[in-house]
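Record type: monomer structure entry
Structure origin: computed from sequence
Chain ID: A
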Amino acid sequence: MVVGRPRRPGPTVRTHVTELGPDGERRHEDRLATEEPLEIRLAWPGVAAHRVWVTMRTPGHDFELAAGWLTHEGLADPGDISTVAYCTDATLTPEQEFNVVTVTLAGRPRSDVGHRHASAATGSSACGVCGKDSVGAVLDVVRGRRWQGPAPDAGVVRRLPEALSGQQTVFARTGGVHAAGLFTASGRALSVREDVGRHNAVDKVTGARVLAGQPPEEAFLVVSGRAGFELVQKAVAAGVGALVAVGAPTSLSVQLAREAGLALFGFTSSDRCVRYA
């Protein structure tokens, strides 16, 4: 029997379910958002590839996720990345092939990889800062180049969640993923990405710009859920002008946004938005 190469996992999987309603049971096929681990390995001249992060993610745009994560963590600037590829380590099983990405830098990382990103570091699909050892380390965020455009227009801000929602194709099929999008000051979408992890979606958005040779700083970063600290940290690192969230911010996210000069909007809809910073 000839065994083919493993199939790259997609963003959704089929499953059979039983729906229970007032009129009885109904069995049918449904779609689930795929959730699988992604291991990011880092290499640079003189240093072999080694694991720096593992996260649970929705497969798709994996190279962007890796590039965005490195940018947000301050380990690499956009021009530092030489190659990004799936790992072909002989110790990996065929099923693992598309779950390990190796990023090779042209030189040493911009900051110390150190114990904060040790080989055992892992994160869930719900948290973007689990690998850091203390709140103090979390607060020591990277401040990238800043957006220098016009102040955010409230009318544009209120339109952004609907513009983001219109491109959430995986959510429409599963109801199980978050979304993030980078938008211009006029409200034009530059890149929109979805993932089971909200922080992964933001990493993918920034990574898409980095790998395309474009600057990650723009007028608006829009997210489909709440504005937790980890999302504000990534927005600050990417250099965007404003973070626009459909849900609520947290006390620490507001504190960081104010300290970093990031405009922060929550509870954003077509009817209203609340500015916190």
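Annotation 1: The domain at 154-275 is CATH 3.40.140.10 (Cytidine Deaminase; domain 2).
Annotation 2: The radius of gyration is 19 Å.
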